[in-house]
Amino acid sequence: MVRKIKNKKVNSDTIEFNKKIREMKKTHSIKECLWEDKETCEGKIVSAHSIQNNRFLNMISKNGKILTFDTEIDEGIKYIFKEKGRKTFSTFTGFCQKHDKELFQPIEDTNYTSTREQKYLFAFRSLARDFHTKKETLSANSSLLKKYGMNPIIMKIVTNHITDLEEISKEFKTMSNQIKDKTYKGLKTKEIILTKEYPIVANSLFIPYYNSKNEDIFEDDVYKKIQNGDLGPTIFLNVFPKDGKTFILLSYFETYEQLLLPFLEDFNSNSEEKISNMIIRYCENVAFNPDYIETNFSLKERKNILKSFSDNIIFTNIPLNLKINLFR
Predict the structure, then answer these.
(1) Which end of the chain is less congested by CB atoms within 10 angstroms, N or C?
(2) Cα separation of 307 and 328, whole Å?
(3) pTM of the complete model
(4) Residue 214: which residues within 8 A CB-CB, separation 6 or more?
(5) What is the DSSP letter of 4?
C-alpha cells in the first residue's frame, strides 16, 4: 500500500472499478525474477514469502492458519478477518530460486541480530513485493483500459500507477546496487523493541501522510511533488516476534529523513497504540494468530478495527480515532 492519494469521497463508479480490478488481478499474475542480472537466474520462479514462512508465520500460526485482513465482494466491498494458510499467505512470484535464496539468506537462515545488512534486506523485500504487485496491478488496469476505452476514471488510475511504478523502479535499482556492492548505504532504520513476544507479523511500505494526531506530515508543495512522482518519502515497515520480544523496523531513505521527522518522532514514547494505528491505517500485508485476535478483542473491537482499516483504504484523509492497542 504505497503513495495513497488523499480522497475525500469515492463514488459508485470508483467502487465498481475497484471491484473489477480485484477480479482481474487473478488473471494478470506476473511470474518473473525482478533481479536485473537475468543471465544469472537459475531454477523456476518461486512463490517467495514477503514474511518469512518457517521463521515467523509458522511461529504465529494455528494448525497452519493465520488471520489477516481480507475482503468479501457482495453488493459492495466488505472487509473481514479471514483465516489463510501460512504457506500461501504473503507470497509473490518475483524471484527465481537462485536469487530468492541468495539475496535473503542473511534474514532467512540467520537469527536477527540488528545488523545493517539484515535491516536493509527486510526493507528491500518490502519494496520487491510492492514492485511486483504494482506491475500486476498496472497490467490489470491497462487491460481494463483496452476493454472499456478511454474511461476518465481508468485513465487517471492507470496514469497514477505508471508514475508510481517509475518511482518504485528507481528505488529498486538503487537498493539492488547497494546489495550487489554489500555497502547497504542510504537507508536508516528506527528500531522499536517491545518487551514481549506478540503473535503479529507485518511487511509493508507506505508514505505516511498523517501522524498519530491526524495532522498532515507534509506541506502542500511537498504533497504535490509526491503525487507527481518527484519525491518518495517511503516508510518500509516490518514487524515480527523473536526471542521473547517484538521488533518493529521503520526504515526509510536517509535523504528523506527531515521530511519524515514529524512521523518518526511519533514513536519516541508510548509507541504501542501508535504502532497499532499505523498498521491499521497503512498495512494490508499483516497476519495474526487466530486465537490471539478472538481471545483478546471483543466482537465490537474487531468490527471497529475492520471499519478503521476499510475507511482508510477508501477514504484516505479521514481522522483515525481508534483507541485500540493491537499489542495486548
Answers:
(1) C
(2) 20
(3) 0.87
(4) 319, 320, 321
(5) P
- For residue 80, give the H/E element and its range: strand 77-85
> Does 163 map to a domain?
yes
Cα separation, 297 vs 275, in Å, equals: 17
192 domain residue, yes or no = yes
User: What's the domain count of the chain?
Assistant: 1
Does a structural domain hold residue 4?
Answer: no
Note whether residue 2 is domain-resident: no
324 φ, ψ (degrees, to nearest 5)? -120, 130
Phi then psi dihedrals of residue 235, to 5 deg: -105, 130
Query: pLDDT tens digits, residue range 255-300?
Result: 999 999 999 998 987 789 899 989 988 888 999 999 999 999 999 9
* pLDDT, one tens digit for every residue, the chain (328 residues): 444 445 444 455 555 655 665 566 667 789 999 998 999 999 999 999 999 998 899 999 999 999 999 877 666 677 889 999 999 999 999 999 999 999 999 999 999 999 999 999 999 999 999 999 888 888 877 776 677 666 676 677 777 777 778 888 999 999 999 999 999 999 999 999 999 999 999 999 999 988 888 888 999 999 989 888 888 899 999 999 999 999 999 999 999 999 999 999 989 877 898 999 899 888 889 999 999 999 999 999 999 899 888 877 665 555 566 778 999 9
Which grid cell is 174? 538503487
Q: List, in order, residues 6 or more apart from 283 with CB less than 8 Å away.
A: 1, 202, 204, 206, 237
In this structure, how many other beta carbons lie within 10 angstroms of the beta carbon of residue 245?
A: 14
Non-local (6+) Cβ contacts of 260 within 8 A are: 208, 217, 233, 235, 252
CA distance 192 to 195: 10
CB 22 within 8 A of CB 71: yes
Amino acid identity of residue 80, one-letter, is: I
CA 34 to chain centroid:
18
DSSP state of 24: H
